[in-house]
Design goal:
The protein contains one helix and eight strands. Helix content is 8%, strand content 46%. It has one domain: Beta Barrel (Lipocalin), CATH 2.40.128.20. With 125 residues, the chain is mostly beta strands.
Length: 125
Amino acid sequence: MTDYAAKFVGRWVGQTMGWNSPAHVWEITAHNAVNLTIITRWEDGREVGRFSAQAASTEPAFIVKMPRRVFKAILVDPQHFLIPEWDTNDTRNYEGPDYDVVFSRPGLAELTARAVWHKYRAKFS
């Protein structure tokens, strides 16, 4: 079994695609080959929360089970992962669509988040 959890450990900065939203700042730790803890906040410093996720055993991905939905984070390359529809409209009074978020390692990788998203989306069109 591959330890996919380790690929996600560290700091990530998420950019919402298609909506002007503050950056999602995540710090991910792994407790073993499966269990992840994510501490998250908006870039403006407001504490958003802490939650758990489970790394997949067959692909570089992890699953987040939230009260209303289950999300899958997909590692695109060593510097990026994507969660389709992660930026939900619950922050917009449940109006409008949900938006994909591309998470990048801090620094130069953040500059390529949009290109990573376009390449990912092109697979489905």
